[in-house]
Design goal:
Largest sheet: 7 strands, mixed
Helix content: 40-55%
Strand order of the largest sheet: 1-7-6-5-4-2-3
CATH topology of the largest domain: Aspartate Aminotransferase, domain 2
Number of helices: 11
Number of strands: 11
Order of helices and strands: HHEHEHEHEHEEEHHHEEHEEH
CATH class of the largest domain: Alpha Beta
Length: 355
């Protein structure tokens, strides 16, 4: 439910087959890491106007582990971690594995229907001793891509309290064609730690490779001293696939973005026509739709729909304390399957007045 139905980009498949043919199945090695870092930097410069040196890019097994490592090594020891919810639920156990407590800042949609950060609540949490904010940008599950002003505001609050802004940018390549994504590190490089990967945009999560990007000189020194080669834990295939994705997988990604744009239009039309009481704000990024089923009297819509409609959504509750009645839908599939999903849901729920 968290991957796309679009398979693997042919250049990535070719690079992995070539690695097998030459027996490149051992531990990761420096040249593979540098190749992946250079490829990532080239992609970020072209897509996001973010110029960063490959020497500031460090490999990690995945995005969540990269964030955990940043919390452990780059924030005040023992300090709590702020999460803005609803948010990607593996962050909760990640904070626990980092040996920290969590401060949940619950966020709600504004008058524009989009979720916004509660800056005052984040400020209070940091004033109370929290040492970091994990910012999900783009925001899974709400689909927001934060503006320059929003990033500057939360970064300023973090800086005021000598805290760190650790930013998950893994969905950035999946930003809609009419949205200009802002990399947080371009706004506040000394405050931000960036963690990202080709994993979401190119269907590679099982290959275990992410990038931790350090734009603060002190962070580079700390990270380099601790993460000597035997501690990195990244997969060789992950490095090879990430390098291929960032360099040779761009045309494939562009085709995926066109599919997602089209599917988003289909989804909006279907929901408007068949489920008019369902609350939904079209995502600016990701391939995930955050759906509010509360008008239908459902506290656990995903469980209800799996049983009654045989449609598998992700339940809202794990994403935060105010997410009951919500569910996350993955629309990175064929239009035909997407139509069937919504039609099954509509046939099961009907309209609130007719239940």
């Amino acid at each position: 439910m968290a991957e796309m139905d679009y398979g693997l980009a042919p250049p990535i498949a070719a690079s992995l087959h070539a690695a097998v043919d030459r027996g490149d199945t051992g531990y990761h090695y420096p040249s593979a890491g540098l190749r992946a870092a250079r490829a990532a930097c080239g992609f970020w410069a072209d897509r996001f106007r973010w110029d960063v040196s490959p020497e500031r890019v460090f490999a990690a097994p995945d995005v969540v582990e990269g964030i955990r490592r940043a919390i452990v090594h780059l924030t005040t020891p023992g300090s709590p971690v702020v999460l803005h919810t609803p948010v990607y639920y593996p962050f909760f156990s990640m904070v626990e594995r980092a040996g920290r407590t969590m401060v949940e800042v619950s966020c709600r949609p504004g008058p524009d229907g989009r979720y916004h950060l509660d800056i005052d609540a984040i400020d209070r949490a940091l004033a109370g001793g929290a040492g970091s904010v994990v910012l999900c940008n783009p925001w899974n599950p709400t689909g927001r891509s934060f503006t320059v002003e929003e990033i500057a505001e939360v970064a300023a609050v973090a800086s005021k309290h000598s805290a760190r802004l650790i930013v998950d940018e893994v969905h950035a390549p999946l930003t809609r064609s009419d949205v200009d994504h802002t990399v947080a590190a371009t706004v506040a490089p000394d405050t931000v730690v960036t963690v990202t990967s080709a994993s979401k945009a190119w269907n590679l999560p099982g290959l275990k490779c992410a990038q931790v990007v350090l734009t603060n000189d002190d962070d580079v020194a700390v990270w380099s001293d601790y993460y000597t080669p035997e501690k990195v834990g990244v997969g060789t295939f992950g490095l090879i696939a990430n390098a291929a994705a960032y360099t040779e997988g761009r045309a494939w990604l562009d085709d995926v973005l066109r599919r997602l744009d089209a599917n988003q239009e289909v989804l909006e039309e279907l929901l408007d026509g068949l489920l008019p009481d369902l609350v939904y704000s079209p995502p600016q990024a990701t391939y995930l739709a955050w759906l509010d089923f509360r008008a239908y009297g459902l506290d656990n819509p995903a469980a209800h729909l799996l049983e009654r409609a045989r449609v598998a959504l992700t339940e809202g509750d794990p994403f935060g304390r105010d997410a009951s009645g919500y569910a996350r839908l993955n629309f990175a599939t064929s239009p035909e399957i997407l139509v069937e999903i919504v039609e099954r849901i509509a046939a099961t729920l009907g309209s609130p007045g007719n239940r």
